Amino acid sequence: MIDLKPDRALVAGLSKGVEAILEVPGDKSISHRVIILGSLAEGKSLVSNMSLSRDNMATIAAFRKLGINIKKQNLTGDGKDFAIYGAGLYGLKEPESIINTANSGTLTRLLAGILAGNNFFSVLSGDKYLNRRPMKRVIEPLSLMGAKISGRGSGSYPPVAINGGKLKSIYYEVPVPSAQVKSCIMLAALYAEGNTVIYEKKATRDHTENLLKLQGCPVIQETPAGGDSLITVKDKSGLSLKPFETAIPGDFSSAAFFIALGILLKDSDITVKNVLLNEKRAGMLKVLKMMGADIGVNVTGETPERVGNIRVRYSGLKGIAVPSELVSDMIDEFPIFSVIASFAEGKTLVSGAGELRVKESDRIKTAVFNLSRIGVAIKEFEDGFEINGNPDLINSKSGAAVLNSFGDHRIAMSMIIMGLALKYRKIEIRDIKCINTSFPEFFDTVSGLTGIARAR
Ligand code: S3P
């Protein structure tokens, strides 16, 4: 049972398992890229199942401000169809005021790459959380490409100011595992002469590559050794990006909350249909299987992205050390993974995950704060955490706890799932409006599951 108050949720644990078949809204990362690259295409793109999250609405608003016509359509009747009237690589207009990038690191960093190559002045600024997130990681490579770009704190944080102009191509080794940095450089490369080559020590999500290829852009992906990757955006003289028609798959990061619920609650059997299964996103499935989870995956489509159905059933789990090569493939799932690990038998160790400290919140600190309030044995490290899990936590009766999202949507939803899993407890989660950042339909989806009532 979830009792929703103005900006907090009171969650009472569920007394029985959940059997359900459900879908989650369109993927946030892909929705951003579809809006961005649809705007740069020559002509009209049609998109269905767009994410209506606050982050993606900020991307639509940003491109409208840059002069792009983006209109709601009524193709399927679910309010998630859009037409984007792309104006070509050089069709953007100088914005008359600051572009509000809200809570979105993806929007801020990808847009910086595009604006660096456009011959006008622009400023990007977001909410108080976004404006604390590191921007040097994009300002540095863009400056190497010849961009005139600066930011608050000697180029460390937003607001970011850009005087766009001519760019040159570079070879760049991305120092942190970040698809946002890689994508920013790839988008700037569309405005640079010659071949731009990006090296990633560990390949990250490749949605930008996949969509650019679909649009006829010469992008080459190579994997020279183990998990590393070399991306070349080839010389693009005379290039125009083709418009496209696409249906956005369900967001794996949103599905992850229901995967957790299915695994943790006795007698559960949950299928999430039409979910993005891109290898660089769905790493948590591999880790959960290693821990003993009962998960079945049925792939239903491959291009431009792998899609399918995921079925999970209640499973007793054993703690593990998460393999370092899988960390970036599940980077957004550590908040919910920390909840799952709390119920696994024995120790689960997460290391090599220092990037968690610079997400929408410091996700190591916020997980430690909340889980230790519940009574979970969790230790904090600079680059991760260790949880000594306990399957019996589900039956714990040690009373109420007040948790906090710290303005981070994934922490808020993860802790609500924690509250639903704790059979005999009442958990309060504060600061939950942030859930709209990625999943405005979250409470409706939860209340749609068999046997879960939601009070207003
Ligand atoms: C994203 C990349 C990741 C991820 C974020 C979305 C993207 O960030 O955490 O939620 O859409 O490219 P980093 O690039 O900072 O790892």
In total, how many domains does the architecture comprise? Answer: 2
Look up the CATH topology of the largest domain: UDP-n-acetylglucosamine1-carboxyvinyl-transferase, Chain
Give the CATH H-level superfamily of the largest domain: Enolpyruvate transferase domain
Oligomer: single chain
Q: Please state how the strands of the largest beta sheet are arranged side by side.
A: 24-25-2-1-26
β-strand percent reads 25-35%
Text of the CATH class of the largest domain: Alpha Beta
Rg value: 22 Å
Number of strand segments: 26
Given as residue ranges, the uncertain stretches (5+ residues, pLDDT < 50) are none
User: Which structural class do the helices and strands define?
Assistant: alpha/beta
Distinct bound molecules: shikimate-3-phosphate
Largest sheet: 5 strands, mixed
Mean pLDDT: 96
Characterise this structure.
Helix content is 29%, strand content 28%. The protein has 456 residues and is α/β, with parallel strands linked by helices. The strands form seven sheets. A five-stranded mixed sheet has the order 24-25-2-1-26. The protein has two domains: 2-25 and 249-455, Enolpyruvate transferase domain (UDP-n-acetylglucosamine1-carboxyvinyl-transferase, Chain, Alpha-beta prism); 28-247, Alpha-beta prism (UDP-n-acetylglucosamine1-carboxyvinyl-transferase, Chain). The longest helix has 13 residues, at 28-40. It starts with a strand and ends with a strand. Shikimate-3-phosphate binds at residues 29, 32, 105-106, 178-180, 183, 205, 331-332, 355. Shikimate-3-phosphate is lined by residues 29, 32, 105-106, 178-180, 183, 205, 331-332, 355.
